[in-house]
Each structure stands twice: as C-alpha cells, then as structure tokens.
C-alpha cells in the first residue's frame, strides 16, 4: 500500500471518527432535554403491533371474547386502554354466554359477562399486569405472559393489563409521576369497581413495569391504614435509571451512555438532567421497612435471567439486597448477604438458583435463571409457579 493510499485511509478514518464523536455528543446533548429523554426511556412510540387491531384480541391468538378491551379513567382526566383477560377453563365453562355477546371494545365493562365472572366470584384472583417499555398490551411476549399468569389456576386467575398514557391507544405523555398515577388508577379500579379485595390481588411487573409496581407498593404501604396485596412478582427489574444507564447496551452489545460511566464526574453531571429517576432501590426498602415496622405480611419475588441482553441480571441481586437490608434495624451489608447466599442458595444447575430471605412478616425470594432473555422468560413455567406461590401463601385453601 502506497503512502498516498495510507494518507487517504487515515483521512477517511479521522473523518469517520470525528463524525461518530459528533453524533454521539449530539445524542448525549439531546438526552438532557425532557422530551427526548421520555422517548429514550419509555420508547412509547414504538408500537410493535403494526397491522393488528387491539380492539380485536382474537388477532393475538385469544378466543372469541376471552379478552375484553375497555378503558379506565385516571384522576387527571386521562383514559387508559385496558384488557381484561379471562382464564381458559373459566372461559370454557361459560363459553355459550360469552359467545352470545359482541366482541371488541366496550364503553361499559361492568355490563359484560366476563366482568361479572370476576366481580361476583368470591374465589376469583386478579393479577394486575404492569408491562415494560415500548409496545402495547398486545406486543411480543406479553400475550403468552397473560396465559402463564393464569395457568396455575385456569378457573380463578384473571389478568388485567393496560397501556400507560402515551402507549398504544392511551393518550397523553409518559413521565414517572404520570405513570404512577396511571397505576394507582388501575389498582383503584380493581378494588372499587371490580370489588376485588387487595388480599386477592397480585402485582406483576416486568422491566419498566417493575419500577411502576414498586412505586405502587410503596404508595399503598404508607397509607393509613396501609393496603396490603397478596404479593408481588418482579421480572427483570432495575435498581434505578442511573444504574440502568451505566449498564445498558442495545442487544447486549452496543453501549449508549455506559461509556460515560467510566468518567464519574461527567456521568453524575449528566444525571442532574435526568427527570425520571425511578429509584426502585429506595422504594422497595421503604415498602419492606414499613411492613416490618407495622408487622404486616408481605411476599416479594424477584426473577431475572442471566442471558438478559436488555437489563443486566446483576440489577436483581442489588435490588434484593436493598429489600433484605430493610428487614434489619441496622441493615445488612452486601458482602454479608453474599455470605448468607453461599450458605442458603439452592443451586438448580441449568435452571439457575434461588434464595429466600424470611422474617416473621415477609418472604423475599430471588430467582436467577440461566436462560430466559428479557422477554421470553415471561411465558415460562417459573412465572406460573411464582404466581401460585403468592396466592397459596396468602390463602392456603386456594388450589
């Protein structure tokens, strides 16, 4: 290769590097603006249900009228698009009546046969499903997730899922405060409209939905009197937004903000512009501490797959530590908990491992799977089993 060719190649590399640095600097600059941040954090404009009509759940593999679309009003005037998913065996038992009703979106969910099956059954259980970033109630692995949630008791376990404001057919713009408001409206609907007592409600969150779920738990635990649910299952949670930014890589390979984490001052300065903190580590500690102080029963399950490309599985042990530490008046260090894990952790080989931390009031369970990725895991039997553990622990007669 001649010197002139080397000079051209060197010039090309320099120009490409300069352009890359300029584009990355522009991206970082845009991240300091709230509107761009919202699109990056929530990805709410990415629907992932193109060419399908959410008002026709049959397009997503459900039986005729197994899913009833409707809306839930929020205190600030917004309306959330929601699905009520009937468990399969209950559907079979009432198939004739369900086939007599028109399918699709209803303005008054209380007039439907499916709603009455939920409200009027004293043995009915309800899973409130808080989904992750991007997509809608019908996207990707969420539909098999609804089936897994009710598979343990396909006569009794209903699922209520919804799109946060700005997602799918729910209008508005997402933010931390507004998503929490949305979630509280859904819980209120379950308790006040569907008349399901919190002891028969399980909170389920995945990815972003884990942060929303933990905010809900904290809110109701700090009420006077507190509201206590049957339990909570969190899949692929994260500690907080800054910790997520420090570890996140697109498809597990392409870093976005994580390179800046090598420069703490610069990274912390960028953090001053982050609007929505989603500090799950603090909220889960508040929740556990409140229940321990008041002597209230609670059950938390954290599940993560080691091959999760989106959110590093290492977030779960740290979040687990914050929850466990809150059970002790003087707390417990991370290293102390790791020593306890070495003693108590149950190794399941290729299936992963689990550990339970028990107190007089609660059970905090950490499950680390070897396989499951970020979304595929939602249809796994481990999800069905986690739900059944919660409901049977809350009521030993539930089978």
Automatic annotation (TrEMBL):
The chain crosses the membrane at residues 12-31. This is Monoacylglycerol lipase. InterPro entries: AB_hydrolase_1 (IPR000073), AB_hydrolase_fold (IPR029058). The keyword rRNA-binding does not apply. It comes from Lachnellula occidentalis. Keywords: Membrane, Transmembrane, Transmembrane helix. Residues 127-317 form the AB hydrolase-1 domain. The lineage of its organism: Eukaryota, Fungi, Dikarya, Ascomycota, Pezizomycotina.
């Amino acid at each position: 290769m001649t010197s002139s060719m080397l000079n051209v190649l060197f010039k090309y590399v320099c120009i490409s590097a300069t352009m890359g640095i300029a584009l990355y600097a522009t991206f970082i600059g845009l991240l300091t603006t709230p509107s761009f941040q919202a699109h990056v954090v929530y990805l709410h404009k990415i629907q992932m249900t193109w060419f399908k009509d959410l008002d026709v759940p049959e397009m997503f593999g459900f039986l005729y009228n197994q899913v009833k679309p409707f809306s839930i009003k929020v205190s600030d005037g917004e309306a959330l698009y929601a699905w009520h998913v009937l468990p399969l065996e209950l559907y079979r038992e009432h198939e004739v009546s369900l086939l007599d009703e028109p399918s699709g979106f209803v303005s008054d969910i209380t007039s439907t046969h499916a709603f009455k099956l939920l409200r009027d059954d004293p043995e009915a259980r309800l899973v409130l499903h808080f989904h992750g970033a991007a997509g809608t109630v019908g996207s990707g692995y969420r539909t098999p997730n609804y089936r897994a949630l009710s598979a343990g008791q396909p006569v009794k376990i209903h699922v209520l899922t919804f799109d946060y404001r700005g997602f799918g057919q729910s209008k508005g713009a997402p933010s931390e405060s507004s998503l929490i408001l949305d979630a509280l409206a859904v819980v209120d609907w379950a308790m006040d409209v569907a008349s399901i007592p919190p002891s028969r409600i399980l909170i389920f969150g995945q990815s972003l939905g884990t942060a929303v779920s933990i905010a809900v738990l904290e809110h109701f635990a700090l009420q006077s009197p507190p509201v206590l649910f049957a339990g909570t299952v969190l899949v692929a949670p994260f500690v907080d937004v800054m910790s997520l930014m420090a570890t996140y890589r697109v498809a597990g390979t392409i870093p976005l903000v994580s390179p800046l984490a090598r420069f703490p001052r610069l990274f912390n300065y960028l953090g001053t512009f982050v609007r929505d903190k989603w500090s799950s580590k603090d909220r889960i500690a508040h929740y556990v501490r409140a229940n321990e102080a008041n002597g209230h029963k609670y059950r938390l399950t954290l599940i993560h797959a080691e091959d999760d490309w989106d959110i590093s599985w290492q977030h779960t042990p740290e979040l687990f530590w914050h929850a466990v530490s809150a059970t002790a008046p003087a707390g417990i260090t991370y290293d102390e908990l790791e020593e306890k894990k070495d003693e108590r952790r149950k190794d399941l080989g290729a299936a992963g491992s689990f550990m339970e931390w028990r107190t007089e009031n609660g059970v905090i369970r950490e499950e680390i799977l070897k396989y499951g990725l970020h979304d595929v895991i939602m249809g796994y039997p481990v999800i069905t089993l986690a739900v059944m553990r919660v409901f049977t622990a809350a009521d030993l007669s539930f089978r």
